[in-house]
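tool_log.txt
---
The assistant was asked to compare two proteins side by side. It first ran the structure predictor on the initial sequence, then on the second. Raw inputs and outputs are pasted verbatim so the downstream comparison step can read them without reformatting.
(1)
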Amino acid sequence: MITIPLSADALAATRFAVSPLMQVGTVLHPHRPRTLGGNSLSYGEVSRVLREHRLHLLAAIRELVHAFEPVFYSPVFLTPPAAAGRTPEPSEDLHRIASAPSRVVAWQLSCLLGVQPKNGRAALAALRTLREAADRGEGDFAERLACELDTFWLRGFSRTWQTVAAQATDDIALRTRLLADHGMGYALGSLHEALCYGNGALRLLDRHSVEVSAGGHLVLFPSPWAHSLVLTVDPQGRRPAFLVYPTSPSTASATTGRADRPLEGKLGPTRYALLADLDVPRTTTQLAALHHLSPSTVSYHLALLHRAGLVTRARTRNFVYYQRTEPPVGPAPTAATQ
């Protein structure tokens, strides 16, 4: 169990953010599965891109984060805290890396270069690569790293970024609705089945037993490219803890239908998200589990959707299945928005 104590002040400062660099860091994660569906890159595909384009610094950093298990660390200048209130452009994040002050690069690299390798020859080779690059100067190191990240971005993510950013934003809207309905503890627990919040701490189910600092508070990053939770901390506590979590499946289906998004303004985000997942028949219990809502809450929303002619329902034995009508029947409700 990984335990992250959160004081009242830390919980109050915890926030959500969307960041191109954190999405890239998720894909570079060394524990990535060997095969993945969708638009994301598997472990082998990431390795191939790094190798074919000679992205030696990224490959070396990827190798060394193994040493920080069960949580992970990458230099703070490589993952600068995301600005509040908007999603930065990839070029903005890359400029922040390339222009990082030399003194900042120097002391942050010292954390990475001071690890005790656990993976034999591969880790030793990675350390050698980073030390040789650092010997050329911290400014040169930061610029080279920004160039490698730019190449990696163009080869793997640039064409799908707008869709990915929209899915992450939709997920934040879903979690905000849960926070408003049930409180921050419930919203944190909804992020992943391995997470729970209680008694002033966030707990992550893991084979390790360790307590880590949140560095003041948490920044939560939804990622359609994440296959599991990724927790990164700064050993010196100079930035918040970053927690990347997989987006809810419902946000992907909702985003693909953006031509119909005016309907969301009439239905509200909760009912809109439920409706998006009713392209196939589902029961109240299934929807409640998928959206981390109580069955009674789902029943209330389904009743309104059915009354508006937006879903049909059919009984099979002891189960009632709901499904979206194609196209919607009747006017969308305008008074009962939530």
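(2)
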Amino acid sequence: MRVILTGGGTGGHIYPALAIAKGLLARDAETQILYVGIKDGMEARLVPEAGIEFVGVSGKGLPRRLSPDTIKVLGKSLKALWETKTILRQFHPDLVIGTGGYVSGPVVLTASLFNIPTLLHEQNALPGITNRVLARFVRRVMVTFPESISHFGALKKLELVGLPVRAEIGKVTREVGAKKFGLRAERLTLLVTGGSRGALTINKAMITVLEHLAQRTDIQVIWATGQMTYSQTIEELQKRGITWQRPGWRVLEYLSDMPEALACADLYIGRAGAASLAELMVAGIPSVLIPYPYAAENHQEHNAQALVQAGAAQIILDSECNGERLWKEVDGLISQPKLLATMGAAARKLAQPQALTKIVDLCREIAWH
């Protein structure tokens, strides 16, 4: 089987595509995969690093407002259509899969016009503009959240499959996870992260939370501040006289051992990207979500609300997040172990641990029929 994958602009579109690529190859090592992305996009670096063949096309996201740049962008999009046509003729794919982002537009659209079987995967509760438009042309649309179904017109095309997560998620024991960080497995543990770069709003609020927890040796913390904000955060902790290097706290620049961190976590505090939430659901971790307010079409807030409505999370808007507000939410949860357990169970009910299997099955079905 010959497959073209396309998606870009953010890791939220790229990593699911790479997961699908690995799933297809695991099922059949003879599968040939080509990833089509923007020449200077994140995918141009991440895809070859993952060992997948990559080819770049022209393209750029449309500006939110009409401007002289709009004409330039439209010109690049037309050029991308022509470049895609050449790629399709040379590669002869049996299937084209789009995971979102503006590069999916010309690639999936051109493939559908050539009557090549096409699929979409939508990661967020609120679908992006590109996928909402493309849904009219593709054979099937795979979604992560039930809430996104109502935003697509062609309901017969919709398949609830979930979002692929790392195989280790949910399989590491609490004891192994705690040992990885030198923590006590029997103690309640908070896991805090704002992503690889960091989230200043969350970090500022967490400093106040640590002030409240300074005398609580029964509460452990794993906090990844992010690479861009680590030094600033440490300086502020020192300025406030908070001893952050202590046995039960791990204040890190970057968290590379997420499966282990989730395994020993009792409460997650962080953003509401689709990939992070999919991992929380598989691991069955309750959460306090602070959606990134500048995500396209505010989709993180929609993601968070899906978990809130299921009883798996609480939400604080970024504009309303400060130290005392975050502490109030955290204190209210850690003082109610039964509520945490109920929320964790609700998160697990939302999980789609077989997401990758479902996606690969559907890919093979659409390609051969």
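---
observation on (2): The chain has 14 helices and 13 strands. Confidence is low (pLDDT under 50) at residues 66-74.
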